[in-house]
Sequence to fold (318 residues):
Amino acid sequence: MGKLKYPLGILLTIIIGMLLNMLWCCNCWGNDNAKDNDKTAPVVIEQTEQIKNVGTTATAVSYLMLKDQDGNLIEEATNHLNFNISDYKHLEPIEADVVKSYGKIKTYLDKHPDQKFNITGLYSSEEKNNSAFTNLGEARANDVKNYLSSLGYDTTHMGIKGKLSDQLVTRNGVVYGPVNYHLSDFPSGKSAALLENELDNLAADIRANPLVLHFATGASTINLSTEQREKISKMVHYLDARPQSSLISVGHTDNTGSRSTNTTISAKRAEFAKSYLVKNGINSSRIESSGKGPDEPIATNDTEEGKEQNRRVVVTLK
Fold:
């Protein structure tokens, strides 16, 4: 038995050592795994955030892009101008890459004066047109044109129009990038002469068929007909094509009350109409206003119908 105790003791020592080693190694492995998990956990979270951001980008951002007439890319940005639903004024602030891209596009246009920069504003059938233009898209295009004009763009080499699109990206009351751009040839030679002739005819049409507004005293809005909206669009087009031109808003009244009072009222109405047009994107420096009171009636003041016609504001080319 004495001889067996020694080998058994060695065997027992080995067994106990193996058990302790397994226990310690398991703890070590567990700690190593825990350390690895600690290192990878932030990476997993970061990837999740990136995936989430990509999803947001895919569903809530529209890219700014301009190509030449051959389809070659001139400039692009990973953001664009955004608008509230049913609104025609772009949201601020504008992303830095958008501003930078507009700068690059201007540089291109300055080097290519034979090119016309066309802006198409988009709108959906679900939106309301709260502007003075024929449609909300045209109003958005005019807003973008005014912004680009503030950056030094030449409005005589720009065109605006609106287009219906039910493929717009919207989220949380915002419409993302409802504006497209394309280039066309700017008229030259005989085409330029034809354009000047068209502008002369447009000016004659505006003067022969001015915008006439009738609204109640104290009104804060003006409800326009389709014909009146078209007249405003024509005037804006003419102002853009001929930078030296301007509009005049003239108020008129019937003969009820004193002449001095009516002159004041007519001036206020003319200024109200001017403010409305300015709010819709026409530069205030391009519109004058004045009041002529009862001095220029267009109908008899002996009837209520005639007086109503005389209470008007007329907007036309100066």
About this structure: The longest strand covers residues 115-123. The chain is about 50% helix and 20% strand.
